[in-house]
Sequence to fold (351 residues):
Amino acid sequence: MHLSRDVVLLITHSGDFFTIDRVAEALSKKGAQPFRLDTDKFPLEVQLTAHFDNSKSYHTIQYNNYSISTEQVQAVWMRRIWEPQLSQELAPKFREACVRESKATLDGFWDSLKEARWVDDLERIDYASNKLRQLRIASEVGFVIPQTLVTNKAEAAREFFQQVNGKMVSKLLTALSRSMEANSSFFLYTSTVKEEDLQDAESLRYCPMVFQEQIPKQQELRVVYVNGNVFVGALNADVYAAAKVDWRKPGVEVGAWQHHQLPDEVVRRLQAFMGKFGLSFGSLDFILTPSGEYVFLEVNPVGEWGMLEKDLKLPIANAIADALLS
Amino acid sequence: VGVVPFFARFLEEQATETTKFPSDL
Fold:
């Protein structure tokens, strides 16, 4: 069945739930027609056709008995892109080429939608995803940031450890992919660095790492920015901080999410920060210190927010739908 | 096995320990 009305394309994957459903529901209530595209289902279940000639070009895409064409798409929610999932029957020696061609074809499809409103544009997401760029811009807009060292030099890491009085954490700039086949990525969560760890710091020569001073915590904040609107969830650090340094780890009991009001000054800086990246959406992490200071950690341009909508009833899906239709 | 980068030690710690809706729990 070919959808007839203006369409909002939801770019996601087959494992997504809750947030994707809430946004689709909010769009439907506002009279728009959501079309969910599970990127990992291309090319085996999603069918895409693109025509180009000197007078025009157009794409059609068919999935789950529905089809849409490029000119129908008025807006795009860039939730997540997963790798094409190919079946085991495909000869292994052709797998990489099939994945590469499929991704290039999808890139062409995204390009055909450049006239639509994107939340957010892929190039802006890519630009904003570098954590070191984030720290620079956060500092420029006036956020407090942790003292940070990025190095592949063992001696520099040891000196920094002394500089922060032995209160140091480490992290990486990117996710580590555990299994392309299972399409799950996993992360090295923020880890405490002990002095004995640094005896082995010469192995930094193979790969640099990010080191930061460990910030004392009263609360951890997940701040969700949607087109000028700000939604905040807070976790009390004393529930888990004695043993853990990263609340995002599976198995870490985080207690209940709580409402939190950011000071006006922090909100102004947040809006300036997001403006510098040209992003309509961002999921940011802050630490509120015992002395009342808000310390910026990072922004994820496609970060999670479902827990805040579910537990705090924050209308984030509705705000995303508004941003898509504005 | 090959030599391992510095971050590998923290991955091992994570494995020894850690693969958010409290109301679900």
